[in-house]
Amino acid sequence: MATWKRRYSTVPIAKWQQKANLIGKETNRLSAAAARDDLNQMDYLDDAIIEALSDFDGWVQQQIDRARGK
């Protein structure tokens, strides 16, 4: 079962998009690298989605097998 816990009370995608746009305009490479690292905070979301998708896929396959009498 998925163990994902929500980190934000609102959807942070707009904020991430703004940060990504600012990185493209940044002239200081170190600042751009630091800002990029800050955007990696969304990696947890990717992991959670993959885990939930895997759980769902397993459930669907179980239902298919049950319907086929396996």
UniProtKB/TrEMBL annotation:
What's the protein called, per UniProt?
Uncharacterized protein
At the top level, the lineage of the source is Bacteria
